[in-house]
Specification:
Length: 442
Amino acid sequence: MAEQRFPCKNCGTSVPENTTFCPNCGTLLRADTNTFTAYSNQPIAPPPPPPSDSYGQITNVSPPSSNPYASSPSGNQPPGMAGYPPPRGPQEYATAPGQWSPQPAEKRPQKRARRGGFRTVGIVVLVVLVLGAVGYFARNFIGSGTTNDGGNSSALSTPTSGATASSEQPTSSPAYNGSARTIPINATVTYADDTVTVIDVKQAQHFSDDGASGDLLRLDVKEQSDVRPPYFGSTGYSGGVHVLLPDGSSVQPVTIQHSDLPAPSISRTNWFDFQVPVTTSVDQITLRLGTPTEHMIDVPLKANVDVSQYQPRTATPNKLIQYGKLNWTLTSAIWRLSAQGSQADKDMSYVVLSFTVDSPSTDAYLNQAVADAFRLTADGGTTASSKFNTFPQTIAAGENGKTGTVGFLVPQDSTKFTLVLPVYDRGGVTSTVQVTAEFQIP
């Protein structure tokens, strides 16, 4: 059966009857196509190669010429097609023989672009996760690790509320926002008869029980008072407690847990807060107890610091001295920086002598005032009068074993002493000669 042909309505070229486009001018020939899509007046590119099976099969399609509108009278649209948009041509894919539907241009490249986009997003997410993990571990390492404060181990801790019971052991400081560096100190000194043990020092930007603003340095301490309440000068704690910074400046506490001075013979915990930048190295800070007119005590804030130069030194002469018909036994001599609740004057120290007194005579007795006449010569030079005595008011005739002390202020570096009991006639004690006794305190 002979193939039927018919002329192209645009250019007159004879084409087979099942031809969709004119092979000469590219004019759409089949009238049963209802899938025209409006396009701009652009030259039609050659039709695409047959798509994959997912788009169907192309049947009896002949490619148009490279210049489908070359012979068109209008130069843009073939005759007889006025009012119709030009066919998409290579932009369309067949869904069934003789039927076409528009598809986005450059379909496959767009898919590849999306895959590239997914890869980019994946890389960004991976980088964010890695950076987050690094930041998390770095934060935990810095927060829970140790810091170098002059060789002192600095550990993170969460303090609890300070104890107020007089006999309790020191507890860590109350909760704070942020992490504090804690450096153990464990140094004990005595100021104004208040024995202070510096347990540790903490640095933080804030402590919840202190409303002071700015960085803080906290000293956790334990206090043990003597038989008399300590005297911290006219200004109390605020004038007798300071920290010295590396630049030489002195800082007073802004907050004290127990700002009242301890009562006699009491043990309690306490803390002192100072406004000190947390960037200041603790081992370059010094605690200073005392005022400029007193024998000040400096405690460098370092673990196992040597503070032996401030500790009491004791000698036990056990010398019998016969004076005013009484037997005086000098049992001990103590060098110390405080006595009777007071701190020694600047460049001075106390020497406290302890006696046991017996009255063997039936007509001799002791009046407390006799000890006020005692003198103490230090290193063959300065002779000091007594500052206090604790003898009882009287010792009756024939009474034995009475005790008391006499205190003197002497130059702080003295080691050799001479006790002078002068000629005396008062209160039942009569001595016509001066009596002396020598001793040393290492």
